[in-house]
Each structure stands twice: as C-alpha cells, then as structure tokens.
Write a structure and sequence with these properties.
Bound molecules: D-mannose
Strand order of the largest sheet: 1-2-3-4-7-8-9-12
Number of domains: 1
Number of strands: 12
Order of helices and strands: EHEHEHHEEEHHHHHEHEHHEEEHEH
CATH architecture: Alpha-Beta Barrel
Amino acid sequence: MKMTLRWFPYGDDSVTLEQIRQIPGVSGVASCLPKIPVGDEWTKDAVAALKSIVASSGLEMEVIESVNIHEDIKKGLPTRDRYIDNYIKTIRNLGERGVRCLCYNFMPVMDWARSDLAKPLLDGSTVMSYEHDAVVKMNPESIAKSMTGKSRGYSLPGWEPERLSVMAADIEFYKRFSQERYWANIKYFLDAVIPAAESADVRMAIHPDDPPWPLFDLPKVVTDAASIRKFLALNDSPYNGLTFCTGSLGVNEANDLPAMIREFGGRIHFAHIRNVKKLGKKDFDECAHLSREGSLDMFEIVKALYESAFDTDFPGYVRPDHGRMIWGEQARPGYGLYDRALGVTYIEGLWEAFEKMKS
Ligand code: DNO
C-alpha cells in the first residue's frame, strides 16, 4: 500500500508539499493540471514541470487525479476522436514521467455534488453534506452557484468554469440519451485508450459516481457491484480498473463494501478511504474517518483491502478523503490538511495492525 494525499499545484491549494511531507506514512501526492482545458493534451513539458515541483519536496507523483474526459467523448460526438487522441498522448506523457495510476470519472455534465459545503457540526467543525430533496429542488445554475460560492476561492474539481456555462444545455442533451448509448460511448473510449495505457504502464482507475444515484435524470455509470462488473467487462485488461471510493459507494445502502473489495480487489488500483454518516436513504454528512464517527465500518473496509489482491501486483495507492474542516482551518472544501492527516494515521494504524496480526 502506498499512501498519498491529493494536492493541487500552482497556488490553488492552502496545503503545501512541505506539510504533506511531514505527515507520517505519506510517500506521494495525487495531483493534476487543472489549468489545461479539458480535452487538450498534457504535454511532456507540463507533466515534467509538475513532477519536478513535487519531487523537489521529496514526494512522488505516481498518481494523477484527474485527467477529465471531454464531454464530446461522453456524448459520442464525431469530434470525440480528436479528444481521445489527446487523451492517449497524455497517458503516454504521464507514463514517461513515472505516473502509474490515472484516476478519472465518466460522469456526465458534473462531477460530485453536495447541497452544503460547510455544514456546522456540534463540535465546531464543518463538513460537506448532501440532502437529496434540497439538491433536486435546485437547478444547474443554483447548484453550481451554491457549490462554487462556498469554495473559499479555490477551484472545485469537476466544477470548472467551462463546465458551468454549458451545464443546463448538456442536461437537456442527455434527456434524449439512453443509458445503453452512454455505456457504448464508455466502451468506445476504453477500447481506444486501454491499449495505450498498457504500453505506457499507466493503470486507469475510474472513480464512482458521487452520489451514486441519478441526478437531473443524467445517466449513471459506477454506482454498485452490478455496474462495476459491467464496467470491468467492457474491457478485460487489468489496466481498466477502479478508484474504490468508500464514501461515494458507501452511501448506497445496497453496497456491501468489504464484499465488493474482495470481488474487485485485483482491479482496484486506487482507494479513496473516507467515512460518511447516513442521515436518510439519500441524505448524508461527511465525517471524520473513524468507524465510530460515521456509518461505515472502516476496520472491515481496510481489512478487505489488506486481504484482497489490492497491492500484490501493483503498489495499491490509497488516499484519505475529505473529512471535516477543523481547528479553524480555511481550505478548499473537503481538502483541508488536519482532518486528512488524522485520516492518514488512522488508516496507517489499521494497516499496521493487519500486517502484525498476520505475522
Ligand atoms: C471528489 C473527488 C472527485 C474525483 C473525480 C475523479 O472529492 O474524489 O472529484 O477526483 O471524480 O475524476
């Protein structure tokens, strides 16, 4: 297992590489180049420059989160081949610079969604929260306004300005779209990029839909065991794998996370480990990582990862996820330093216990 922390470069993060370096157990970052417009190639020079910034702080950059997929690829428009070509070049350039795992998502129009990015808790901390009735009453503009309005000036991954301006039109576009047609577009993308990922030795790791149920009638992709099975069968290569996000998948009551980890272990290349507190069928607060703080059994989740093929043929990248905003920190929602650092040591502690119990 290799522990990482998500980090945004070029002044778009309140957390520094020096701080990340001092969290025990963290060997690298999962980073990105959000200034490059979606669909463009990440050039060798741009990747090399990012890598040298990370390396100069003594950290590795073996994971990228994310190279976003151009909407024309998701829509299956004739222009998709140009963007797929750029994606392939990006994979090659990342592989040449030592990146081994690429996290991405195939969610139409928008990435993750929450109704409140800073809900106050009784202990004085704040968390991101999702109330389904509140979200469905919103329209794309108001949800975008509420998300970006509370982002403390940081860019929100998945809520880039170029997406916001076309959100309403894109939601309309997908109303004429069948779920099967959407899946056919995923397969078209995978069949084009997976051979390049194999030769560049970069494992592709799709992130589940967050939340894992339909919003604005948009097609859904990775939400439960059945859809993951279907997704992995689209292309059998081990390079076609998963980012197993316990928080995203964990709010769907039907999901037995340890069982899913045991089933998909060898295809899980990256794990986002966080807890959630379920408040209703489709309502939840994010929370601190410990099992007792939320609804997920983190002991069983980490145990399943430890016992699965997660890190046998591959490093098995992990990162803590979100958590609360504590100790007065002012950071990008979901990406503060303190609660994620507490999450790292908790996950590392569980991992060490499994290792020692085995020997
Ligand atoms: C949310 C993140 C997601 C993830 C993307 C992957 O906090 O886990 O934004 O990075 O869905 O493309």
